[in-house]
Amino acid sequence: MRRQWLLGLIREVHTASRGTYDRPLANQAYPYVFLDATYCKARVGRRVVSQAVIVAVGVAADGRREVLGFEVGDTESQPFWTTFLRSLKARGLAGVKLVISDAHTGLIAAIETVFQGSSWQRCRVHFMRNVLARVQKTAGPMVASIIRTIFAQPDAVHVNAQFDEVVRMLARSHPKIADMLEAARTDLLAFTGFPPAHWRQIWSTNPLERVNKEIKRRTDVVGTFPNPAALLRLAGHVLIEQHDEWDGADRRYFSEHSMKLLDVTEEEVAIPELNAA
Fold it and tell me: Which residues touch 11 (CB under 8 Å, ≥6 apart)?
């Protein structure tokens, strides 16, 4: 009975989820866009396969978070990512300065294609997991602590200096990890081109963790979905609830004043006396 009720709910939320999914996005700019995925089981043909529920969340120019879109598909496919991101652009998504995501195969190329001129921030949490998967468990805490010092710096100059120091330290004890860091430098430190007040909330996809956990909690009750469309509808219901919660909240992700820091030029930041003149 529980499964039948849930499948009935999936059908009922179809219209509502498509409404949020297709809504226009051209009313304002979205400087920050987060992309993340959670995985569920669905039948595709005669097989049960893992499907990713992709979620795009944006921080609008007024500092509010919004669910921009969602889809179900194969996250390793560049055509899938490109189609999804282009659908957001077609609905009016603009003003994107930074895209934050994991380094899924195909995603980086899709971001470069669809969001030309935007920066990409590689999620530091996902990167750390990749690092820890390549070191012995006994050495993991030490390596993680050393890398975290990069992100404990007060400004971009010190972040870059500490990055260099960490690479030098790890080159002696864990040369492969040092190489990983050096190769990912630009993508891991993209956040330094933005206001320091925003750093903790833009250097990873952690802000979507609660959303993904709620999707998993709801979908785990169903188990295996009859098809990807059914998975999309139930996940859409969860995301509509989250969108409405953010929309009705008094507190914004960033204050409007904080968001105006994005418009401050590098010269104004470097020479504060000019602002007082």
Answer: 233
